[in-house]
Write a structure and sequence with these properties.
The chain has two domains: about 80 residues, Orthogonal Bundle (Rna Polymerase Sigma Factor, Chain: A); about 70 residues, Arc Repressor Mutant, subunit A. Helices cover about 70% and strands about 0% of the residues. The chain contains eight helices and no strands. Helix 2 packs across helix 4, helix 3 crosses helix 4 and helix 7 packs across helix 8. The protein is globular, with a radius of gyration of 19 Å. It comes from Flaviramulus multivorans.
Length: about 180
């Protein structure tokens, strides 16, 4: 069955088609959920909430643009909705934090370790870091999505980079001392 036919069947509340759509996209969308969640269990909750929203709103998908892109936007918005309710963003004086260059040596750090330290960032820093660095949103878009000002977005990104840089430097120092 083609993707278009699957979508049409989902619009008719066909549970078999919904199950197929879930199987087709759940692993990709779960990876997105992991980026925006504090942990694995929260990512699972976000994925579940994403598909509930997808099946409620699938009528709104008119075939314009990528269906996968549409799904990803719903996934990101679902995860962000949790944080909007919790008010995790503080207003920070944007002049207090200097932007830091973050260089990652892929040979000495595993993807799993990088994902872990990103997930350990405080919510406001992790969300802005992921939106800006991993998904390519502008500070203007991030400010709109998270209901914060542009300066807060920039300072949260700078702080996330500072924390990651310190964590990576500490890890490398520990690795270096263990190898001697």
């Amino acid at each position: 069955m083609s993707l278009d036919q699957l979508i049409e069947n989902c619009k008719k509340d066909d549970t078999k088609a919904q199950s197929e759509l879930y199987k087709l996209f759940s692993s990709k969308l779960f990876a997105v959920c992991l980026k925006y969640s504090r942990n694995y269990a929260e990512a699972e909750d976000n994925l579940q909430d994403t598909f509930i929203t997808v099946f409620k709103k699938i009528e709104q998908y008119k075939g314009k643009g990528s269906f996968e892109g549409w799904l990803k936007r719903i996934t990101v918005n679902t995860a962000l909705q949790r944080y909007r309710k919790e008010k995790v963003f503080d207003i920070i004086n944007e002049n207090t934090i200097e932007d830091v260059e973050l260089e990652v040596d892929e040979d000495s750090l595993s993807i799993d370790y990088l994902l872990q330290i990103i997930q350990e960032l405080p919510d406001r820093y992790r969300l802005v870091f992921n939106l800006y660095v991993l998904d390519g949103y502008s500070h203007k878009d991030i400010a709109s999505m998270l209901d914060i000002n542009i300066g807060t977005s920039k300072s949260n990104l700078a702080r996330a980079r500072q924390i990651l840089k310190q964590t990576i430097e500490h890890y490398k120092t520990k690795q270096h001392s263990q190898s001697q």
